[in-house]
Structure formats: structure tokens, C-alpha cells
């Protein structure tokens, strides 16, 4: 099934918006004294890994979601199409929201919970896409895997720092 350019533009714009909103929360904080002072587990990847992985995942989300939406449209599955679109929208809101909990509000417990919700949402999105697109949508399974890792990492950072008083700056 061919993917329509209009659909790719819509899903790419949505994924880019989520990335931009999340980035607004994280950019000024990455080198802040608050973030530098946080205790982090030894398995935390180097800083450069995050934008590389997330760029690939956002592209994956946009392309596979566009293919899924177009395939649902082509098959005339009118019940599944709005449901998929809602699942994608919720996922992107959760995606952007994590950065605001963690970087902007310094709410480590809430960010761990948000990461877990994002993991569940991304697993649901991948499941829906694979059910429609089969093996062609399988790369989207990397998204919940990364989110699960991020959930473990967020939770570990919260546990390492939960007795510390939050500080701004």
C-alpha cells in the first residue's frame, strides 16, 4: 500500500511538534546545576545518544503511523481509524509531557509514572500498527522498548534522588 504524502506530512508534523514541545522543557536544563547534581545510574547512556535515538524514533512513529492510517483508510475500517488517531495523539502528548515533568517541574516521581504510561501507550501504538501493517510496521516495536528502558532509567533516577530537596536552576 502506498503512503500518501498528505498523511506523512500530518504525522511528521505531529511527531515534530511533540519533539519540539519536549525539547522546550529540556534544553535549558540539561546543563543546569540541578541536572548536573542529580545522581544517575552507571548505565545511563551518554548525552549524545538521546537526540540520536529520539530522532530515529520520531521518524519511525511518523512513517509507520502514516502507513497505518492510510491502510486503515484503504480498508475502510472506519471504527479503527479514529481510534488509531486518538491513540497516536495521546502517545505524542505523553511523549512531550515526560520532559515537562522531569526537566521543567523536577518531578522525578511523576516523570517515572509518565514514562511508564508512555511505555504502555507506545506498546499499544506498535500493537495496533503491526496488526494493520504486519512485518512492515514491526520497526515501531523499538519505540516501546526504548520507552521501557527510559522508564527504568527515570525510576532509578527518582529512587537515587528522592530524599534530596528539589532545587531550581
TrEMBL record:
GO terms for cellular component: membrane. The chain crosses the membrane at residues 49-67, 141-160. It comes from the Bacteria. GO terms for biological process: tetrapyrrole metabolic process. It is found in: Membrane. Keywords: Membrane, Transmembrane, Transmembrane helix. The keyword Transmembrane applies. It is a multi-pass membrane protein. Its main location: membrane. Belongs to the TspO/BZRP family. This is Tryptophan-rich sensory protein. It comes from Mycobacterium botniense.
